[in-house]
Amino acid sequence: MPAESHGVKLISMAFFVPDDTPMIWRGPMVHGAIMQFLRDVIWGDLDYLLVDLPPGTGDAQLSIAQLVPLTGAVIVTTPQEVALLDSKKGLAMFQKVHVPVLGIVENMSFFECPHCHEKTEIFSRGGGKAAAEKLGVSFLGEVPIDPAIREGGDTGMPIVVADPKSPQAQAFMNIAKTLAGHISVRNSNEIKLTIIQ
Fold first, then answer.
1. N or C: which end of the chain has fewer CB within 10 A?
2. Torsion angle (degrees, nearest 10) of CA 15, 20, 24, 28
3. Burial class of 154 by CB neighbour count within 10 A (0 to 12, 13 to 18, 19+)
4. Sign of the CA dihedral running 4, 6, 38, 24
5. Global pTM?
6. Alpha-carbon distance 96 to 53, whole Å?
7. For residue 23, which phi and psi values (nearest 5 degrees)?
8. Which domains does the chain have, with CATH numbers?
């Protein structure tokens, strides 16, 4: 059974190993774990199944692309140039294995001072949007750097639950709505194609 919190079901390798134990796995072990999570977890009825993969173009990405028909991939990047290079490689890898890229999210876009509301672009800003435009994929939105987001992750009380009307929560909600819209259109088009055939 997956863990569940705030209506979201979750499974992770972190549930099965001690906190101080590193996961040093070769490709076949990663592949096996992904198969178990997809096949053996009692998910029940889901609206969406999101898989958070490590960055890069490694075994986890290839395994998931081979094991199940994916609706698409979302590339998450930070705005600085070196991170964008890795994101572009990830995008190219998903395209090579015929997984549609639903869009790019820019994380850590800026920090907004809680006192004067001045925005500081610590890692630059706009790189994700520029990359999306250049690569011909949707820009899904940007997420600021904010202590409340980190605190929510640490305490198990996400910002969208703790303070749903905050700008930080709205950033996540807007990305989720945009992504859900893209998936709905894509699924609708696939149904039409199936009916035509």
1. C
2. -10
3. exposed
4. negative
5. 0.85
6. 17
7. -95, 100
8. 1-68 (no CATH), 70-197 (3.40.50.300)
